[in-house]
Design brief:
mainly beta; Barwin-like endoglucanases; six-stranded mixed β-barrel; five-stranded antiparallel sheet; elongated; signal; hydrolase activity, hydrolyzing O-glycosyl compounds; polysaccharide binding; Expansin_CBD_sf
């Protein structure tokens, strides 16, 4: 048995001579949850009915069964039962072997609200896998607006967005980050999905609140709360973002309608990696930092800004690109597709 903290036991429930009912107990004695499990065993009889599991293989009495949606996850300290009926004499299943994915984060409805988590830091890193809980929300709901990142994602592209927990949101620094996400469907063979951070999951300190469309690609929506793995990635140039551009077209500067010469403002999207800072380049070769707001808007309020400006943009890994001739004070909502992009790391 691959996981020594998982115990599998069996008992006979009824025997009517030409058939019997048996019960399998699976107990998680470990300190981590077991998710998306399957169980193999040998039985010389034909199973004619089973409850709380599905038979997915039978090779001459070597059975493989898997969870149902309601018992996909076996929490630490929990025992689940599976009943079956079989023809013939009352034989005992042999050679139990169970497999699945283990998680530190419990997927329970009474624990999806948390404002601190000592196990994760605020900075996203490449090559690091994070675990947490995933829920979902109606990203198309007009009362939700554009999300805390301010991105106006087209309705048909909502399967590509997510909100991120209140720690890794990091004052909107995670806005625009691309995450590779795996859930129960991926543990059963589906390809991972890529989502872009467009909102803040205010009430939880781990995991993601996926759009309903994205959640359906990683789990059955009836599950409601599931365990996921996710990691920061840098998409290739041909990747089309939910915003509608490809990464290869470069960083997109969104115009802010309220901007004016005394309130210069800009929001960036379509960047390969999250943005650390934006500085305005002065004619004398100096820089003036723009202030980042909680809505992912960068502003400068020192007055009298006229015409196009050059902006020095730094990502969270220290890479820099210069965006030329960006008018941050003209009150326009138009996008500027810059052609400038961070390199793949």
């Amino acid at each position: 048995m691959p996981n020594e903290s998982i115990n599998v036991n069996y008992s006979s429930v009824k025997d009517w001579g030409n058939g019997f009912e048996g019960e399998i107990y699976i107990t998680n004695n470990g300190d981590r949850n077991l998710d998306s499990w399957d169980l193999e065993f040998d039985l010389a009889n034909e199973i004619t009915g089973i409850w709380d599991a599905q038979i997915i293989g039978n090779d001459n009495g070597s059975y493989t069964i898997k969870h149902e949606s309601w018992n996909r996850e076996i929490k630490s300290g929990e025992t689940i039962t599976i009943n079956f009926v079989s023809n013939g004499s009352n034989n005992t299943p042999q050679n139990f072997e169970i497999d699945g994915s283990t998680f530190d984060s419990p997927s329970s409805y009474d624990s999806i609200y948390s404002f601190s988590n000592p196990n994760i830091g605020s900075d996203l890193s490449l090559g690091q896998s994070y675990q947490g809980r995933a829920t979902f929300y109606d990203a198309a709901n007009p009362t939700g607006g554009r999300g805390n990142s301010g991105y106006d994602i087209p309705y048909g592209n909502l399967a590509g967005i997510t909100a991120i927990n209140n720690i890794q949101w990091n004052g909107s620094s995670a806005s625009g980050a691309f995450l590779l996400v795996s859930g129960p469907r991926q543990r059963e063979g589906a390809a991972p999905i890529v989502v872009q951070v467009s909102d803040l999951l205010y009430e939880r300190a781990d995991g993601l609140d996926l759009s309903a469309e994205a959640f359906a690609r990683v789990a059955d929506p009836v599950d409601g709360v599931v365990n996921i793995d996710y990691e920061l990635i840098g998409p290739g140039d041909d990747f089309q973002t939910p915003y509608g551009y490809t990464i290869g077209q470069g960083i997109v500067a969104e115009g802010i309608p309220e901007s004016n010469p005394w309130y210069g403002a800009v929001r960036l999207n379509n960047h390969r990696y999250p943005i650390e800072s934006i500085d305005l380049l002065t004619e004398g070769g100096g820089t003036v930092p723009l202030k980042r707001g909680s809505d992912n808007r960068f502003t400068i309020e020192n007055g009298a800004i006229y015409g196009a400006q050059d902006l020095l943009v730094t990502d969270i890994f220290g890479q820099q690109v210069t965006l030329y001739d960006i008018d941050i004070a003209n009150g326009s909502s138009a996008d500027i597709v810059t052609g400038q992009q961070f390199s793949l790391i």
